[in-house]
Amino acid sequence: MREMLLLSFDYPPNSGGIARLCSEVAVGCTRVGIDVQVITSAPGKDIATPPSRTRELRVRHSRPWREWDIYRTLRNRIGRWPVICGLWYPDGLLAHAAGARPRVILAHGSELMPCNARWRRAIWMRMLRHVCESADLVIANSEYTRRLVLEKAPRATVVAIPLAVDHEYFYPGDKEEAKRRLGVTNRVVLSTVSRLHAYKGHDVVLRAIAACSERIRRNLVYLIAGKGPHLGELERQVADLGLADQVRFLGFVSEDDLPNLYRASDLFLLCTREAAERQEVEGFGLAFLEAQACGTPVIGTRTGGIPDAVKEGEGGWLIEQDDAAALSRFLSQLVDDPHTFIAEGKRARMRMEQQCTWERYVRRFVDTLESLDMPGWREK
């Protein structure tokens, strides 16, 4: 049996794309016969640890004790197991400091951009370059992220493996029943699932709705799922644009409720902007795959790694950053010609089944590790 350590501070019960990716890698590699040991921090005292589907070592969650615990653990396993690091910092830096080899780093996008504090940037970027270039391999979540790694660490060995979706958990269902559960029957439903930050582009959708004719607007409802610091500004924009009847803020939506939200949606939107100076970019956009797996067509922007998640003619469309006028035309078409979007949703589901399953991702992941001929990748 082959062996592998997966080190990630971002792991369930944490939510979000990085935690989900690390969990799927651990579970998927276990299923194909790899002995996986997950090393992560214990959740806070008010958060329950979820049932484990892999072997886990949970260290203390408070700093600096968690870093010390992980450092000691890695030192005891030097040369024995390959170490997969969920992020270059702090996971990859800790593995590097402990001398853990072979060492593989997962790259996602925004964490590779310069930090906001100018006095820290030079040190931060030198550290990023050294950690990535000294790793045996960096696995990026998109072609965009692969190029970003090479821009910051030119001598790094990098491959891109686009993300995947649990197509057996996210699947099409009864759309009208899903709308009934959300109280949006007889409406054309738009949705966005993301943290509420300015760069996520919720305002682009609001301006696009406001630009539609009154007849089109009356048919639309926009469901915004997520929490974040931009909530107050979005609420003000909704009031200023007179969209109180069209917009509903759902707050945090649990993993259990996400499939119903996607199924209720006639169109999923995420109009992220790219702003490297503020560490803002969509390295991939896992929510796009989740929506498409539920048979919902999507629209995204041509920024970051979104073009790897959204393929035009295979479940969605791409628009330019901040192009509210183009989005408004799509919304009018959605109301007047819904069958075009229903057909695109069916193509989206087909693409997820054929190209974007976690089984396929793990197969590529393991094949990539095997190509390194790592000394720790051995039979017991």
**If helices are DSSP runs of H or I spanning 4 or more residues, what is the number of helices?**
15
Structural class label: alpha/beta
How much helix is in the residues? 40-55%
End-to-end separation = 6 Å
Order of helices and strands: EHEEHEHEHEHEHEHHEHEHEHEHEHHH
Largest sheet: 7 strands, parallel
Shape: globular
Describe the structure.
This protein is an alpha/beta fold and 380 residues long. It has 2 domains: 177 residues, 3-Layer(aba) Sandwich (Rossmann fold), CATH 3.40.50; 181 residues, Rossmann fold (3-Layer(aba) Sandwich). 43% of the residues lie in helices and 17% in strands. The protein contains 15 helices and 13 strands. The strands form 2 sheets. Strands 3-2-1-4-5-6-7 form a 7-stranded parallel β-sheet, sandwiched between helices. Strands 10-9-8-11-12-13 form a 6-stranded parallel β-sheet, with helices on both faces. Helix 11 links the parallel strand 11 and strand 12. The mean pLDDT is 92.
Compact description:
The protein is α/β, with parallel strands linked by helices and 380 residues long. The chain has 15 helices and 13 strands. The protein is globular and about 65 Å long.
Topology:
Elements: E1 2-7, H1 17-31, E2 34-41, E3 55-59, H2 65-75, E4 83-85, H3 88-97, E5 103-107, H4 118-134, E6 137-140, H5 143-152, E7 158-160, H6 175-182, E8 188-193, H7 202-211, H8 214-219, E9 220-225, H9 231-241, E10 247-251, H10 258-264, E11 267-270, H11 286-293, E12 298-301, H12 306-309, E13 316-319, H13 324-336, H14 338-355, H15 358-371
Helix pairs in contact: 1-15, 3-4, 6-10, 7-9, 7-13, 13-14
